[in-house]
Specification:
Elements: E1 4-10, H1 14-24, E2 30-36, E3 60-65, H2 74-83, E4 97-101, E5 105-107, E6 121-130, E7 135-136, E8 143-150, H3 157-163, E9 182-185, E10 189-193, H4 198-207, H5 216-219, H6 221-229, E11 242-243, H7 252-256
Parallel strand pairs: 1-2, 1-4, 2-3, 6-9, 6-10
Antiparallel strand pairs: 4-8, 5-10, 6-8, 7-11
Helix pairs in contact: 4-6
């Protein structure tokens, strides 16, 4: 039976990463986590990964990359960290499935049971939430989140993320350079975006590849706090999100642990 390797790149998102392990525990064989000693701007950082529940220690393949990064090309740095994940797939067989996500993009575990991908690639279409579990971002739902392919078809993590897109399916047939061998997986999980304290959101904006959002008008902590309180978009797009009910469409682990997770529920 094919195994499932769930791969993520990591910066300092310990809360959502440990939550990911809990949600996907019964449907994933191995978690591959790659952290770098550099951020995507090429600046040195400490290693931040901390495993909360020790029962997962035998399922986690933790990679600490010390490869030097550019201080001028954050997108290349991001790609470099992604490709380092190959170092965690030594035990993967050709028919095993490889998932790739950001830590906060959590595939629906029900879709991983008896996974049978008919196309070369799959995209999990996910509901998008911001700041709290139940602040719904209708503007970016469904979110093109987790990607999946078989190990034998995986040539590049960054390619799978950047080039395997829904819009490929609408290109005319003669655009053969656009990969269309893509299966869309509906009800594909949850993108719990920016479930972070304001300070950590600010750090994220100052260090990730999107340099256009690193100015003070985005990273000022008081501005971030105001956006959260108003359930408003971080990026001045005049979008206001909606509070929704925490119901059975959420991961079972969240429903069963609402008391412990109350900080992230409004």
């Amino acid at each position: 039976m094919a195994k499932i390797f769930d791969c993520i790149t990591f910066f300092q998102e310990n809360f959502i990463t440990n939550l990911r392990f809990e949600i996907l525990d019964k449907s994933v064989d191995y978690f591959v986590v790659c952290e770098s000693i550099y951020d995507h701007r090429g600046r040195k950082k400490k290693l931040n990964f901390k495993l909360k529940n020790k029962k997962f220690k035998d399922k986690i393949i933790y990679l600490a990359s010390k490869e030097p990064m550019s201080n001028t090309n954050p997108w290349r740095n991001q790609a470099q960290q992604r490709e380092y994940l190959f170092n965690g797939l030594d035990e993967a067989k050709d028919e095993d499935y490889v998932l790739f996500s950001d830590p906060d993009e959590i595939p629906n575990p029900k879709k991983l049971i008896n996974l049978n991908l008919k196309k070369t690639y799959g995209i999990f279409l996910q509901k998008c939430f911001c700041y709290k579990f139940n602040i719904f971002n209708k503007f970016e739902s469904p979110w093109e989140g987790t990607r999946v392919t078989k190990k034998k078809n995986l040539k590049s993590f960054d390619y799978m993320r950047q080039k395997i897109l829904i819009k490929n399916l609408s290109y005319p047939f003669w655009k053969i350079f656009k990969n269309k061998n893509i299966e869309l997986i509906n009800d594909g999980g949850w993108h719990f975006n920016s479930l972070l304290d304001p300070r950590d959101i600010s750090i994220k904006l100052k260090t990730f590849a999107h340099t256009e959002f690193s100015g003070k008008n985005f990273t000022n902590i008081n501005i971030i706090k105001k956006n959260i309180s108003q359930m408003k978009d971080l990026f001045n797009r005049n979008r206001y999100y909606d509070k929704v009910k925490l119901d059975n469409s959420y991961p079972e682990y969240i429903i069963n642990n609402k008391k412990n997770l109350k900080k992230w529920i409004i």
